[in-house]
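Input for the complex:
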Amino acid sequence: MIALSDVSKDFVLHNQGGAVIPVMAGASLEVAPGECVALVGNSGAGKSTLMRMIYGNYLCGAGSIMVGGLDVARAAPREVIALRREVLGYVSQFLRVVPRVPTLDVVAEPVWAAGGSRSEGEARARDLLARLNLPERLWSLSPTTFSGGEQQRVNIARGFARSFPAMLLDEPTASLDATNREVVLDLIREAKAGGAAILGIFHDEAAREAICDRELDVSGFAPRVAS
Amino acid sequence: MTPLLQVDGLTKRYGARLGCGDVSFDLYPGEVMGIVGESGSGKSTLLSCLAGHLAPDAGRVVFDTRAEGARDVLTMSEPERRMLGRTDWAFVHQHARDGLRMGVSAGANVGERLMAVGARHYGDIREQAVDWLGRVEIPADRVDDRPRAFSGGMQQRLQIARNLVTGPRLVFMDEPTGGLDVSVQARLLDLLRGLVREMGLSAIIVTHDLAVVRLLADRLMVMKDGRVVEAGLTDQVLDDPQHGYTQLLVSSVLLV
Amino acid sequence: MSVQTAMDEAQVDQAQADRASTDQAGTGRHDPAYNFAYLDEQTKRMIRRALLKALAIPGYQVPFASREMPMPYGWGTGGVQVTAACLEPDDVLKVIDQGADDTTNAVSIRKFFQRTAGVAVTEATGEASLIQTRHRIPETPLTEGQILVYQVPIPEPLRFLEPRETETRKMHALEEYGLMHVKLYEDIAHNGAISTAYAYPVKVEGRYVMDPSPIPKFDNPRLESPAIQLFGAGREQRIYALPPYCRVESLDFEDHPFEASKADHDCDLCGCGDSYLDEVIVDDEGGRMFVCSDTDFCATRRALGHAGRLSGEALA
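Predicted:
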């Protein structure tokens, strides 16, 4: 479902003397449907960069990134947009929303964007928010004023509002208490059981062991810096 | 899928100075494209050329018309182009007063486009006007008030209602949130997002506000000195900018 | 008109002839200090060319090089120039202002042409070959061969909604008339009905939207006429026209159709029930009377013996 082959990436900082910073080289990996793979490696090793490249958020320097038959490295923007709408879900660490939009709408939006009805989206949002123990009085408020843990739960609910065939999870259990952490792990298990190919970053070792089929150390993708 | 709009080599000069040079892109149904750049970068010139308000010196703007399929807008007769401007196209100006008739009521402002395409039943026109005022969150009891009596945010929402009442397929927006308070901006952005999604609109939004394009636009073009220096997915261009100017633009945004 | 059918036609002719006999006959000579009908021949030819174009494109505003006339703008300089361009020595001229032959403006213009053209003048609508009018169409139906010249203050019906001339000309050219209905919409929204009572916009031959000059909308149905109708706007330098029998429709909405309304009274002098009326305040106690605005029409009826509510009373 997700297959990377010989992917590399440099950052070029034009406003700092054109400094070229190579961040990745020769990255290859595969995630099959129903499989959950954890990216591991030291902080700064390029786990998030790799995830962002798969999502199309960072440009790919070389190589190919196949997701559901589409090469994200070469795809036109509209193809990536369609991929994100239909195939590839992403739960980031940060919630980015229009201010003043109610939480319920934030969570339901991916359902509506995919053509789901108003009531369908709302029902799914209610179900997820309830499962994640977000107090119902908060649902009509904008999440911009919520605490870190509350925002993270809204973010997860939004990420799981639709069932995607492929998912990227960036620290989904960070800043959650034990109960909610368990709910999130259940959601991931359900997605796996539904056949989703999942690639994730989990600093939470117990969580990793609980749901991941294998680990992949990204240190091997670090570019060889000419010394 | 056929592109709704195909732009090819669009160039406009003001004497020796370049307004916009060799701009090409395709816009597909349902896509929202942002155009960013600082003042004088050519983004407003480009928008005016696209919308037919300004005649470019070279290039093609091919629109997929409902009746006749792909037509080059620039070689259309003026009546055809103006008809397009009242039916399939809409233009939201930065200053509401440029897009509204300030001397007539809110209802008449919304109804004008309907009457322009032949609506002749007062009751129906009024019903549609009230419905649209509701959709842009203007109370029905303000239908007979003139826009002069409205706040800036309300005027802008009225302009949007006036533009969308005939069910256009392509909306041009020039700094739609410029000059509004931030709290009013947020509400307008949410409204626009909802309408774009519900009506399946395509839109081209010119702005210098990167936060606006991040929330509204699927795709982004960055302009400098009349040229497109970078284009791509909005979040990709903003998070992994490739061109020096874009990197400068993104790193210059103040955070709160 | 029902009034016409009610009267014996011969009687009407006689009554009008009696009154016409009091009018000054044409001298056949004009004041030699002036060219015939004041304007020089080249100017008249220029205006006639504009008139022919206007007749060929009903309702279209033809620009013309309006001349300075010996009267202020707003007093009918456009109408006077059109009349001057149309007059022939054997024409019989009638001039009315709001239907009346005896108001300052009407008298002045009549005298102007008596002096500069030496033409015969009349107050009888049926006898006139050319009628210059301000703000009315005579009640007596016009006939083929007659010319009605309107004085027009603002020829552009779109002016109050769209101030740019460049834009209004484009709108006419492209038949973009949605804006006219915006005005009518506003009327209904604010007043519950179309409250435009005069200068009510019309569409001519299904093409051009035209301002019929500030005639009451009561007169609009009579814009479809056997006579030639010419419109002159001196200050705005525009001429437009309605050839005989051309189609003139008053704009409206399906659910608010056009109505030619008038005051709900009979004429207090001649008793006519379907003529357009002026309201006249007669004392300081709120006393009022309604009289035909068309003085010739009213006088002719009275000469035939028709009487209204106050016709017996002495009027100051």
